[in-house]
Amino acid sequence: MPRDGTSTKTAIMDAAERLILDRGFAATSVDAIIEAAGITKGTFFYHFKSKAELALSLVQRFAEADRAHLEDKMARAETLSRDPLQQVLIFIGLFIEDLVQLTQPYPGCLFASFCYEAQLFDTETLKVIDEAMWEWRRDLGGKFEKIFERYPPRLEVEARSLADMATVAFEGAFIVSKTLKEPQVVAEQLTHYRNYVELLFAPAES
Amino acid sequence: MPRDGTSTKTAIMDAAERLILDRGFAATSVDAIIEAAGITKGTFFYHFKSKAELALSLVQRFAEADRAHLEDKMARAETLSRDPLQQVLIFIGLFIEDLVQLTQPYPGCLFASFCYEAQLFDTETLKVIDEAMWEWRRDLGGKFEKIFERYPPRLEVEARSLADMATVAFEGAFIVSKTLKEPQVVAEQLTHYRNYVELLFAPAES
DNA sequence: TATTTTATACCAACCAGTTGGTATAAATTC
DNA sequence: GAATTTATACCAACTGGTTGGTATAAAATA
Questions:
Q1: Class of domain A1-48
Q2: Could you tell me if A114 and A25 are in contact, meaning their C-beta atoms sit under 8 angstroms apart?
Q3: A1 touches chain B (CB under 8 A)
Q4: Domain A51-201 grouped into CATH 3.60.140.10
Q5: B175 closest CB neighbour out of A115, A119, A179
C-alpha cells in the first residue's frame, strides 16, 4: 500500500480508465498508464498479470458501479411512489438531477469505448458488458411491463425497447456531449426520454 | 487504376473502415489494412502519405455520405408534404424504412469510433466530425423551429435539443445493436424518436 | 518476515513509414 | 510512326522506434 492509504491498484485503474476514454484501449500503452499513475512497470505487472486482465478488471468495476446506480436509484424511486409509472419517471429524474450538475462534457462510457474496439477483447470481458446491458433491460423493462398493466400506451411499443431507450439516451448523449464539448446534452436527452414516457402513458385528455 | 475498374484507394478505405469499426483506429495496423485490401505497403503509402491522412479521408467520406443522407431524405420529405411537422415525421420514417431491412447488427458509426479515440486525431479530422453534427443541428433544428411556429409543443423543449435527439438515437442504438448483436434495435429507437415528435406536437384531444 | 514497490535492463514482435525499383500506357518529341 | 519522356500505379525489402511483457536485485512498507 502506498503511503496515502489509497490502493495502488485503484490508482492504476483510475489512470487507465481516464486515458482509455480519451484515446481508446489499444492506444493506451502500459507505459502511459504507469506514468499517469506515478508507479513503475514492475508494480503494474505485480497487480495485473497482463493488459487484458486490466481490461477485465476495469469493465467489471464499471459494471458494478453501473449496477449500483441502477439499483440505488430504482430503490429510491420505489420508496417515493407505489405507481410503476411514477417510479420510472422519478428513476429517470434522479439521473437528470446528477447530470445537470455537470460542468465539463461527460468523460464517456467504458462500455461504448470497448464496443468500438470489441475485437481486442476476450469473450469474458465482452460478456460483462453484455450482461450489464441485459440488467437494464430486465429491471427497467420489468417496470414498463407493470406500467402496461395499469396504463394503456398511446402508441404500440415494447417494454424491452423502452428500457433500451434509456441506454440509448445515455450512450448517444455521451457521444454528442464529447464531440461538441457540451456538458448539458446528457441531461437534456434524459429529459426527452422522461418526456416521452410521460406522454406515452398520459391519460387521454377529455 | 487496377484493371477491374474499381479504385485501389476506395478498396483501401473500404477495408480500413470495416476493420476500424471492429477494432478501433489505433489497433488497425497498416499491415492489416493492406492484407484485407489485397495490396502492398508501398501502394498504401502511394495513396496516403500517412495513416493520419487515411483517417482524414475516411472521416471526410463518411461525412459526405452522412450529408447526402440528410439532404436527400429531407428533400424527399419536402416533396411529400408542405407541413414542417409532417416533413420531419416523413424524414425520420425514411431512415426507419432503410433500417428495418437490416439483417445484421449495424456495423457502427465512424464518428462514434473516432470520438472514443479523439486524442489520436488532429484538429482538422475532428473538425470534420464536429461540423457534420452541427449540420444536423442546423437543418433538423431549423425544421423544429418552423414546427414551433405552427404547433405549440405539449412540453417545453428546445429545437436544437430535439435535433440532437436524432443523432443520439442513431449513436446510442448503434452501440446497443453492436453490443447485443441485435439488428432491429436501430429501427426501434428511431421509431421511438418519431413517436416522441408525434406526441409532442399532437393537437390536444378534446 | 511477507508483501509491496522501485529501478533498470532487457527482449521478441510489431509498428508506421521509407527506399529503390518495376510495369504500363499515354503524351511528347524527332 | 518510331523513340523517348512523363505520370501513374504498384511492390518487396528494409529501418528505427514502440509495444507488452519479463527478469532481477534492492529497498521500503505493514
A1: mainly alpha
A2: yes
A3: no
A4: no
A5: A115
